[in-house]
Hints:
- This protein has helices at residues 6-11, 13-16, 63-72, 96-104, 135-153, 173-192, 206-215; strands at residues 49-56, 77-83, 108-113, 160-164, 196-202, 224-228, 251-254, 259-263, 266-278.
- It has 282 residues and is an alpha/beta fold.
- An eight-stranded mixed beta barrel has the order 1-2-3-4-5-6-7-9, surrounded by four helices.
- Helix 7 (206-215) links the parallel strand 5 and strand 6.
- 44% of the residues are buried.
Amino acid sequence: MRLLPLAALLAAPLVLFPVAAPAQASPVLPPGPVAAVPFDGTEPPPEYRYTGAGFDACSAPPAEALYVWRTASPYGAVNIYSSGSQRACRQTRLTPDWVATVRAMGWKLVPTHVGLQAPCAKRPDKPLRIDPDRAEEQGGQEADEAAAALGALGLGPGSPVYLDMEAYPVGDAVCSRAVVDFTVGWTKGLQAAGYRSGFYSSTDSGIADLVAAARAGRAPMPDAIWYARWDGRPATTGQPGLPDDLWAGHRIHQHRGSADETYGGVTLSVDPDALDGLVAGP
Length: 282
């Protein structure tokens, strides 16, 4: 289906889609991006949580598609690849105006950063790796990049950024330690900037290493986790290898891989998620 410019959609929503128009009125665009309020460090920033269904897509979807999906689909949250040198897809739509527009529709956003990967990772598409000797320092540098990107998009203090650490081989102590050290630096940097630290990985690799680190008393650990286990179970508890007492209420579960889904005549390729966790604030 060919999507038309958002301006045209807002002018005549009943003409553009060969389906019944959503019951709600067309979204009113804000006058412009809302600047994030700087974090002054005097008190903890607010926390924003969402419980429900969400999805992630490689590129920020067209606003026209999200307008239809907001009422036709079961989803209420969508991730955005907000920063990172190793993002897989171009983000030509991801601008402050896009963020303001989709949030005005009611979407909750899950910012994600794709940077350095585990030293032992086998991902030719993401060749840049953590240096085990500089892991915590590098994590702090990437936190600075991620925080700046959130501010530029108009996402304020208290918003999380989820570090995308793709699956890597288990059993390599040096590799596991580097991932944990990097994540500690990432968390320190984001918290110092007034944001919250998130971490995405497979339950069998990155999440398993963080669970072990948390049990061993390593700190600071991320404020929230997003774990991938494609078991088709849209729940955030009762996960083998992830005790329910860790990150309770601060979890996202990616429970299936990418597939096309169609709602209201609009098709997107998405990975579905169950959320009981942190999303971006104003």
